[in-house]
Amino acid sequence: MLNKVSKQQSLKHYQWGNACDSWNLVEEDSLSVKQERMPAGSSEVLHYHQFAQQFFLVLKGIATFEIEGESIEIKQQEGIQIKAGWKHRIINNTLKDIEFILCSQPSTINDRINIPLTPKGE
Fold first, then answer.
1. Distance of alpha carbon 22 from alpha carbon 59, whole angstroms
2. C-alpha pair distances (Å), 25 with each of 14, 39, 99
3. Dihedral sign computed on CA atoms, order 50, 52, 57, 59
4. Is the pTM of this model over 0.90?
5. d(C-alpha 6, C-alpha 87), whole Å
């Protein structure tokens, strides 16, 4: 059976971080596709995935990614691939919401290792 999915008609909606939204569009062991929204000034925790590679496509706004110690801005209609094992996070340094599509292959369920912040000087 064919089923349409969208932000308004997703498989699941949940919030994460500081009032960020995620809508699951595809959720299988081999593939996850989500549409996400991050409000102005929000950020994700630095982390990595042992098995999953990811692709982010920015739909609205400008997202800043920190990947393996480097920073890159990804604008609307641009995307970036993140390989398995790469330490990364997404940040919204702007005054407006950002929205993006996040594809993970395989799914990141039980495949996320957060990296604790270390105080400066240690």
1. 14
2. 12, 20, 14
3. negative
4. yes
5. 29
- 5 in any annotated domain: no
Residue 57's beta-bridge partner residues? Answer: 79, 101
DSSP-derived secondary structure letter, 45:
P
Length of the chain: 122
Structural domains of the chain, count: 1
Residue 32 sits in a domain whose CATH number is 2.60.120.10
30 inside domain: yes
> What range does the domain containing 98 cover?
15-114
Instruction: Check: CB of residue 84 under 8 Å from CB of residue 53.
Output: yes
Tokens of 4: 């349409």
Identify the residue whose tokens are 């596709």.
33
pLDDT digits (tens, 9 = 90+) for 55-106: 999 999 999 999 999 999 999 999 999 999 999 999 999 999 999 999 999 9
